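Our collaborator T.R. sent over the components below with a one-line note: 'Predict the complex.' Nothing else. No constraints on interfaces, no templates requested, no preferences about which chain binds where. So this is a plain run: every listed entity goes in together, and whatever single assembly comes back becomes the starting point for the next discussion.
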Amino acid sequence: MKYMPSVISTVDIPLQCEYSVTMQPALFDASPRYTVTDLTRRLRLLLESTADLQGVWVEGELSNFSRPSSGHVYFTLKDSSAQLRCVMWRNDAARLKFTPADGMLVEAHGGISLYEASGQYQLYADLLRPLGEGALFAEFLRLKALLEAEGLFDPRRKRPIPELPRRIGIVTSPTGAALRDMLNTLRRRYPLAEVILAPTPVQGEEAPPAIVAALRTLSLSAAPDVILLARGGGSMEDLWAFNDERVVRAVAESTAPVITGVGHETDFTLVDFAADLRAPTPTAAAELATPLTLADLQSGLMQMEQSLVGEMQAGFQRRRETLGWLEARLRLVSPRRRLQSERQRLDDITRRLNATQAHGLALAAARLNGLESRLLALSPLAVLQRGYAVVTRKADDRIVSEVSLARPGDDLSVRVRDGEFGARVSGE
Amino acid sequence: MAEPKPVDKLNYEEAFSELEAIVASLESGDQPLEKATAVFTRGQALVKRCAELLEKAELKVRQLTGEEVKDFEAPE
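Returned assembly:
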């Protein structure tokens, strides 16, 4: 272990012991005495409580980089005259956005402490990135503020993503894993779509103009319903094309809505802010571009088929009901029904008439009888019953009611009770 | 809908949206029986068409080469 005078000089209790010239301690000196463990722990606490050794950036060249199966990462930072052992725990190491390699110039952020078991002081790094990314980040913030002030990221600019895209444009590298992931996702979720790939480099100097050209050509030649702009994970420098002002503007001006899926969950690039929708990864972008899956469509179709058959049956049912109702109404106004009721009325009247007639006849008969007997009583013939006779002149049928009407020689007719006989007036 | 396209010429979106319209028209129930029956028959054909399209759907991938669109061969 190296001797560290500068650190030790900052503490109140001197750790340096006084040694005699002969290297023998004085017999009764007052020097503090430690076990190795106590001393080491004391040193560790000393380092950890020193504010300007915590939360520091250290620049250097990467060497002895190793990542054992534990997932923790060990490396050494060095420059021309010194070395610093470093460790990065698994959780922090998982967020590494580049593939570290020995010889790279990097900057690490963390705190200095001491590993007691080996007495090794080291930097416990929570962040490791290629040197220069800090400057990139400052540029990122500057450009973001500029474009934001211009209104390029305004939520009101965002367009809705179509539910059933017929044509999906993809702007990415033709050889990357991102393309394979997106195609697999689209094939699985929504194979009804047609994909038009606009291949472009996604990294390096030539990437930004190529991405801009790919976006424009795609819109002009293929008129996609939605565009996926994607790239797999990488360092901030790798993803830098997606922070390029030209690319950000092209995304904002795209005729079709754009979904970005650049890098990993934790990566944010400026195109993400300009896009209509930001996905954390290329796969997620393909998912967001297909809000309805094949299975959704199949169940939707099944429901629609049920509705179709159901509505048709309901239509028949409605018609049957209407028909039944009309039939009932028709029966009410039917001539047959009137005929029946008329017939009934006629029967009534006939009955009444018959009754009236019978009564009238009886009455008439009685009256007739009365009249007849009165007539009979008055009839002259009735007198004949009592032995009288009626004499009429045959010549003129006059009743001979006085002598002067009977002259000698006149033929007479004498009517008696049971008939007539002739007579002649004698000359006396 | 003066001269409806033959069912087998429709893509999924066209077929499905016509199917939706047909169901809605049957729902309103104000068309003559003969017309309703004809519309229903077309609806059934549309269901069949949609199901077929879903069944055989296979993602088509093409690639822009310059201004042209060509078939895309995925690199293995």
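Summary for T.R.: The mean pLDDT of chain A is 87.
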